[in-house]
Amino acid sequence: MRSLRKPLGILGLAAAFSIIGKAARFSAPAGHAAAVPKRASLSSRIAPASPPSGYQLTPAERARAIAYNDAETADYFLGVALAILINLMFWIGRFGVWLRNMARKVSSRVSVHCLIVVPALLAATALIELPVDLQSGYILERHFHLSTETLSMWLADWGKSLAIEIVAGTFLVWVFYVLVRRSPRRGWLYFWLLTIPLGLLVAVFEPYVIEPLFFKFTPLEREHPALVERIEQMLHHAGLYIPVSRVYEMNASSKTRELNAYVSGFGPSKRVVVWDTTLHALNTDETLEVLGHETGHYVLHHVVKEFLWDEMVAVLFLWLGFRVFGWALRRFGRRTGLDGLDDLASLPLAFLILTILAFLSDPAVNAISRHYEHQADQFALEVTYGVVSNPNTAEAGAFQILGERDLSDPDPSPFIRFWLYSHPPIAERIRFAETYKPWAKGQPLRLLHGASP
Ligand SMILES: [Zn+2]
Q1: Separation CA 30–CA 275 (nearest Å)
Q2: 247 CA from centroid of ligand 1 (Å)
Q3: Which of the ends of the chain has fewer CB neighbours closer than 10 A, N or C?
Q4: CA of 63 relative to ligand 1 center, distance in Å
Q5: What are phi and psi of 23, to 5 degrees?
Q6: Ligand 1 centroid, distance to 195 Cα (angstroms)
Q7: Closest Cα to residue 3, out of 58, 57, 51, 72?
Q8: Dist. CA 377 → ligand 1 center (Å)
Q9: What is the pLDDT of residues 223-233, one digit of tens each?
Q10: What DSSP line would sit under 389-440, residue for residue?
Q11: Interatomic CA distance for residues 298 and 263, integer angstroms
């Protein structure tokens, strides 16, 4: 549901890694909170007869949302610039060469070299990036009263994320260099092909292995049987079948005041997750719209579709990246102590190129995401038609609260929308939610009736 994708993070191997490591996840809308909207004021705002009103903020709320988003955007670009600079310095300063020489003294095996070089490189990068990550992930969130976690909790999560990146990164780098050694010309292509089954495998196990490291998940039916009954009614009305045992509540309130929901997993692990903050802030009709949105991702197979589209973008950028990699090695390799394509000391250069390419691929990846998010918004309206009294006001009301709570930017610049928005801006979503009424014109519910459960 968030509008912005997370910045590249610690790993320079962002492009390949983000595809594999990305728990394809689709969220509903997002909002912000400190001046939390009260439920009472809400019901008056979404009175069934109210005309379309768009995204409503007081001047103070508007200024606060803009300040937060400006800071978040600045942190994002700063993070990218820093990642580029670190890898550039590691390459030119021959840090990779130094690490590779150390590893060669220990063993002659490539796998052992990877076990030494990759964790050292990733940990060094993470430590240099820590102040920026701390600013964007903790200080900024505390400043805007979005976070409820302590510094030690944040640092524990940071450590866990780094550990996961080191394990996954070491394995991927080892695979990459082995493939390039065997096939200097097509190694990149074999690597890309391998990311498809690997990515799907990660998607299957991520809800069991990764997510519980950060939050607790409880089947929704345990705490909210009445809501589950409404969900079943909604699905039954639409002729869909999704086991409600696959809908979970996540204890997001242990760390944040923001609202969200998402779909993750693949095959047997496919599931809908609603943050507990969302359940507390929305009334039942609004919650059903959020669940309708997530159900849309689920029923329309968005997880796997977006994954495959992202792989298309990745193959293009990997091809390009590998050519740039070969050119840079021929041009500067000797001067920077690198022996060739399969020399592990070239890792900072590879990370540098991938960081830049991952950044450049953001607009394409986000455009794909925005398309599916818009579809899910439409699906939510269709699936709740005839189940909630007024789908339009319920969905617009849910987005309004999400926007307020998550401090969504009321009017992002076209460039920022193009580059960073994985969801349409909240004002656009509210406008669509208020005006999409095919039933009023006797038109079919296209997404719902084209969907196969
Ligand atoms: Zn979504």
Answers
A1: 11
A2: 15
A3: C
A4: 26
A5: -75, 100
A6: 24
A7: 72
A8: 8
A9: 999 999 999 99
A10: S-HHHHHHHHHHHHHHHTT--SS--HHHHHHHBSS--HHHHHHHHHH--GGG
A11: 7
DSSP single-letter state for residue 81:
H
Of residues 41 and 114, more confidence is placed in 114
- Sorted by sequence, the CB contacts under 8 Å of residue 270 that are 6+ apart come out as 246, 263, 264, 298, 303
For residue 396, give the nearest of 435, 428, 433, 438 by alpha carbon: 433
Distance from residue 428's CA to the centre of ligand 1 (Å): 14
- The CA 450 to ligand 1 mean position distance, Å, reads 19
Strand partners, 272: 247, 263
Which residues are paired to 33 by β-bridges? none
Alpha-carbon distance of 246 to 220, in angstroms, equals 9
- How remote is the CA of residue 44 from the centroid of ligand 1, in Å? 27
Give the model confidence (pLDDT) of 201-218 as tens digits: 998 999 999 999 999 999
- Average pLDDT over the chain reads 87
**Cα 31 to averaged position of ligand 1 atoms, centre (Å):** 14
